[in-house]
Amino acid sequence: MTIIILTPMEIEREKVLHALARIPNLNHTYDIIVSGIGRESTAKTLMQLPPHDICILMGFAAVIGKEANLPSHLRLGKPIEITTASLYGYEGGLFENGKPIINEPKLNLPCLSSLTSDKFVRTTDLAEKTVVNMEDYTFMYLKKPQDFIVRIISDFLPHETEIDFFEEVKTIDFLEGIQAINEI
């Protein structure tokens, strides 16, 4: 099976490649493509994908809540599958663009809901355990039925102190998420 793993950023692509290199017996052929950050970049990339069997959006995820208060399967670096996506806001304003998109899980990973925003969300008025990003809704809207989203938890919102995102994610490993994908 040919699987495309779509990553919003180059650092995520590097982490996917590093994880794949450590799995001795890959069950599939993988093509890793960087889409760029945001809804428009995701849409443009999805319209130009080479032939494949499954496309998986995989990247970092900010989760609402304090890490110490979340269950162990939602800690830093843990993989999750996104099964519900909604569109949240335009420059911080709240709106819904149609009903949430809901899919059945494809992997044996914890499943969370995702809010996609045009800008980074800074509000605290969101449900704990909600993922916030800039791509999931577009991907869910345009994907094929067999496609799905795996996110790796990278930070927790709201940030209690200012963070350097790229420093925070240096030690995060995508191996657990890639192993789950390789089992399909």
Tell me the number of strands.
8
Mean pLDDT: 90
- Beta-strand percentage range: 25-35%
First-to-last CA distance: 10 Å
- What low-confidence regions span 5 or more consecutive residues with pLDDT below 50? none
- The number of helical elements comes to 5
Indicate the overall shape: globular
Q: How is this structure best summarized?
A:
This protein is α/β, with parallel strands linked by helices.
Task: Write up what this structure looks like.
The chain has 184 residues and is an alpha/beta fold. It is 21% helix and 29% strand. It contains five helices and eight strands. The chain has helices spanning 10-21, 39-46, 136-142, 165-168, 175-182; strands spanning 2-7, 29-34, 54-64, 79-87, 101-102, 111-116, 131-133, 148-157. Strands 3-7-6-4-8 form a five-stranded mixed barrel. α1 (10-21) links the parallel β1 and β2 (29-34). α1 (10-21) crosses α5 and α2 packs parallel to α3. It is globular. The N and C termini lie close together (10 Å). The model has no long low-confidence stretch (mean pLDDT 90).
Quick tags:
184 residues, alpha/beta, globular, 5 helices
What is the topology?
Layout lengths: L1 E6 L2 H12 L7 E6 L4 H8 L7 E11 L14 E9 L13 E2 L8 E6 L14 E3 L2 H7 L5 E10 L7 H4 L6 H8 L2
Parallel strand pairs: 1-2, 1-3, 3-8, 4-6, 6-7
Antiparallel strand pairs: 3-7, 4-5, 4-8
Helix pairs in contact: 1-5, 2-3
